[in-house]
Amino acid sequence: MEIVRSHRQVAAAAAAAGGGGGAGALPTYKAAPQLEVRLEEFELFAIDRLRVLKGISDGLSRGKRPEEMEKLVSELWKTHMRHQDPAETLNKDIISHFVLRLVYCRTEELRKWFLSMETTLFRYRFRLESPESQRMLMTEFQLPYKALPHSEFEAVKDKLSQVARSIGQSANVEHVFFKVPFEEVPDLVASRRVFLSKGYAYVAMSQVVSLVVTQFRCNISKALALTNRKWTATIKEQEKDRLTPIVEALSNAYFGPDYSQPKDAVDISLKDIDQLAKSSFPLCMRHMLDKLRENHHLKHGGRMQFGLFLKGAGLKLEDALAFWRAEFSQKIGSERFDKEYAYTIRHNYGKEGKRTDYTPYSCQKIISATPGVGDHHGCPFRHFGEENLRAALNKMGVGGHALEEIMDKVKNRHYQLACTLTFETTHGVSCDSGINHPNQYFSESQKVLRAKNQTMESQSQSAT
Amino acid sequence: MGRDDEPVDSMDIDGQKQQQLEALTAVQRGSALTISESTMCSGKLFPYGDFFKWLCYGNDGKHPGCDQSYVGRREFSLTLENDIYLCFQSFDNATELESSIKEKCPFKIDIGPVYSVDPSKHHAYAQSGNNVFVPVERELIFDIDISDYDDVRYCCSGADVCLDCWLLMTIAIKILDTSLRDDFGFNHILWVYSGSRGVHCWVCDSRARKLSNEQRAAIADYFRVYKGGENALKKVSLAGPVLHPFLARSYTDVLRSFFNDKLLLNQQLFASEERCQKILDLIPDKNVASELHGKWQGNRRSSLSKEDVNATRWDQLKTTLQSGKHKTQGLRRCVEEIVFSYTYPRLDMEVSKHMNHLLKAPFCIHPKTGRVCGPIDPNNCDDFDPAAVPTLSQEELESAYNAKLQQSKNSLNS
């Protein structure tokens, strides 16, 4: 791809250049296309595609179901990427993808996010394609799986039917199945959506999406690693006056603060924690503090989620050690605490081992946690049963109509919206940006309370 | 492992222990291990040769096409006294392993993955940050701990275990072993007693060792039914008009009979108000639940023996739920959900998901119980009794050693 300031080539070259897909509609991004791109388009195309990816990210964290996601992707694509001329659309599609590879190849976290969103985008666009187009794409991904011969199909027909019914589909609707090593379809195995026998998964045509997407993901993942090497080795330096500043600005613009270095956070001290919990902690963290005070213990998942939150909120390492020791020593003694737990806390602050300064978990990560026996971490709006959640919200002072609204959001799996509503109810202000990080909840809360204090102060001053 | 404990003759400790341990190690089937008559004990009697032979998977330099570096890239972790952890240890042969263990006397040995390069040199590679030091092979492992079932067993809690609740481990072995073979096509599966309150599973097929983290997570999720932390009341949810063939088979072949014939009585699941309530809480229809509650309140005064109470109430519950009278959503699978809640295996997901997770080596002695972490035959797992597992206490060890020493001294002096 050559980036120029002058007039651009016509986009028809794109399809022919190996970046296009079978029917020309859904590219697989195997190779960078040989065309020229204007510098302005470089940035604009990327921004439009980022709008699509960000929209997908929001949809996922709101727990949207597959049918809803399909609709969302279709709308996002139409709004931001579609052009009257399909050749132009394809042009923009390919260019924006490759530009974003440059932007998002540079750290592990960026790569993970980009990979996840692009894969999701591809998955739903694939679902929206026609069967012929889908079949051509399968071929392009070199999935050499032959359809199950009739005799074999008859032998396992009942089991296949049973699987279909177990996932809420009608029995005996699908007749084309593929026999695939189970390693190739991990998500289908994980959700028990396939029949397994002797190491093979029996995959329905409709599930083939999963196969294709896994390959797609794998290809992009490898490509990102390569791009990162190239970037670090040559491109970054070569382009330091032209593309590099744009690339760096793009990734910062679309990644929310990660709270790994509390910027405007005031240091919080030990004695403040209980008070702050009541006034400014989100429910997930309040709950863990309560349980910690009650049991003088938290299991690993809880220690990570809560400990990193406290760090992001401004609790210093020495105070953190004192805090956890004060609780744990009541159950296991301070000597055992120092031996068995202090190391992990220091590790979280980047003072041990690989010395990574760990980042507090975002809502998306917390919601997708899998708390098990004895665990108290996770997102209460997702992981609590209804009764427990109502009780917990009551304790926060949330009741009546607001409580019902929140429970309604929960029923529809809009966990972050539920938390946002909780914030709005308890603080008496609206929160337009929505909550997507516990530390964001905390700092927004503190802002509101400080503003209230200032208002009160200035009122009392003017009153005198 | 249903042998009776042989009486230990203090004059012949060495010989007796030898026999017991030989019997122990002679029982394994279909696993990649071949243990000979070597006895085991951490430090002095550990089966170094065979242990190493297992972990070589044929890369032992004796034939062309083998990878000489393979075994030296396997991570071991030794835990010493005073909580000193020696991670990223590696050994090129059994002799090196043996001398390291004898010199350092660890009370626990953990096995990690086979890395891309020698783990003991990992510092050099970590700097380059280019994913040069990564795990490349690792057995597929599972860890099942009885304390994860504390909410459904009344006989013991925490680290204690008895034959009544050990049934839960037997169930887990049966279900997982069958599925690993029939569904996933694995053949080389080693089940090991963890030494105190659980079991470990090592799947050693080449295909299993090469699985990625994502694939391991997928298998763990396939097995996962029990979900939810402390605050979700109902932790087993079997949605859908029918069960997936794997779950259906598990239910019909194993779970239902263990629940009906053994656990119901052993654990006295309906014998008290509290225990009944716990089961009633799993019924999504509150009317049905209170109807049953009312029935059982009434029956309390009749002089039924403890046996009758559990079986009777369970029958009543099943009849009510399966009568089809109540059309509430979620009611149709309720009986199965209750059975699954009380019996279905609960895996530690984190252990299975990551290639670099360390797991205690088989054939060690458990540091707290002194029991040997020996193999369990999945075909005979009903007979396994954790209390009957031989132990080697420090005194027995020392006295066996001293007896040998005295013998040799005597023969030298004469």
TrEMBL record, chain A:
<keyword id="KW-0639">Primosome</keyword>
<feature type="binding site">
    <location>
        <position position="284"/>
    </location>
    <ligand>
        <name>[4Fe-4S] cluster</name>
    </ligand>
</feature>
<dbReference type="GO" id="GO:0051539">
    <property type="term" value="F:4 iron, 4 sulfur cluster binding"/>
</dbReference>
<keyword id="KW-0235">DNA replication</keyword>
<feature type="binding site">
    <location>
        <position position="379"/>
    </location>
    <ligand>
        <name>[4Fe-4S] cluster</name>
    </ligand>
</feature>
<feature type="binding site">
    <location>
        <position position="363"/>
    </location>
    <ligand>
        <name>[4Fe-4S] cluster</name>
    </ligand>
</feature>
<dbReference type="GO" id="GO:0006270">
    <property type="term" value="P:DNA replication initiation"/>
</dbReference>
<keyword id="KW-0004">4Fe-4S</keyword>
<dbReference type="Pfam" id="PF26466">
    <property type="entry name" value="DNA_primase_lrg_N"/>
</dbReference>
<dbReference type="InterPro" id="IPR016558">
    <property type="entry name" value="DNA_primase_lsu_euk"/>
</dbReference>
<dbReference type="GO" id="GO:0006269">
    <property type="term" value="P:DNA replication, synthesis of primer"/>
</dbReference>
<dbReference type="Pfam" id="PF04104">
    <property type="entry name" value="DNA_primase_lrg"/>
</dbReference>
<feature type="domain" description="DNA primase large subunit C-terminal">
    <location>
        <begin position="274"/>
        <end position="442"/>
    </location>
</feature>
<keyword id="KW-0411">Iron-sulfur</keyword>
<dbReference type="GO" id="GO:0046872">
    <property type="term" value="F:metal ion binding"/>
</dbReference>
<comment type="similarity">
    <text>Belongs to the eukaryotic-type primase large subunit family.</text>
</comment>
<dbReference type="InterPro" id="IPR058560">
    <property type="entry name" value="DNA_primase_C"/>
</dbReference>
<keyword id="KW-0479">Metal-binding</keyword>
<keyword id="KW-0408">Iron</keyword>
<feature type="binding site">
    <location>
        <position position="419"/>
    </location>
    <ligand>
        <name>[4Fe-4S] cluster</name>
    </ligand>
</feature>
<dbReference type="GO" id="GO:0005658">
    <property type="term" value="C:alpha DNA polymerase:primase complex"/>
</dbReference>
<comment type="function">
    <text>DNA primase is the polymerase that synthesizes small RNA primers for the Okazaki fragments made during discontinuous DNA replication.</text>
</comment>
TrEMBL record, chain B:
<dbReference type="GO" id="GO:0046872">
    <property type="term" value="F:metal ion binding"/>
</dbReference>
<keyword id="KW-0804">Transcription</keyword>
<keyword id="KW-0639">Primosome</keyword>
<dbReference type="InterPro" id="IPR002755">
    <property type="entry name" value="DNA_primase_S"/>
</dbReference>
<comment type="similarity">
    <text>Belongs to the eukaryotic-type primase small subunit family.</text>
</comment>
<keyword id="KW-0240">DNA-directed RNA polymerase</keyword>
<dbReference type="GO" id="GO:0006269">
    <property type="term" value="P:DNA replication, synthesis of primer"/>
</dbReference>
<keyword id="KW-0808">Transferase</keyword>
<protein>
    <recommendedName>
        <fullName>DNA primase</fullName>
        <ecNumber>2.7.7.-</ecNumber>
    </recommendedName>
</protein>
<keyword id="KW-0548">Nucleotidyltransferase</keyword>
<keyword id="KW-0479">Metal-binding</keyword>
<keyword id="KW-0235">DNA replication</keyword>
<dbReference type="Pfam" id="PF01896">
    <property type="entry name" value="DNA_primase_S"/>
</dbReference>
<keyword id="KW-0862">Zinc</keyword>
<dbReference type="InterPro" id="IPR014052">
    <property type="entry name" value="DNA_primase_ssu_euk/arc"/>
</dbReference>
<dbReference type="GO" id="GO:0005658">
    <property type="term" value="C:alpha DNA polymerase:primase complex"/>
</dbReference>
<dbReference type="GO" id="GO:0003899">
    <property type="term" value="F:DNA-directed RNA polymerase activity"/>
</dbReference>
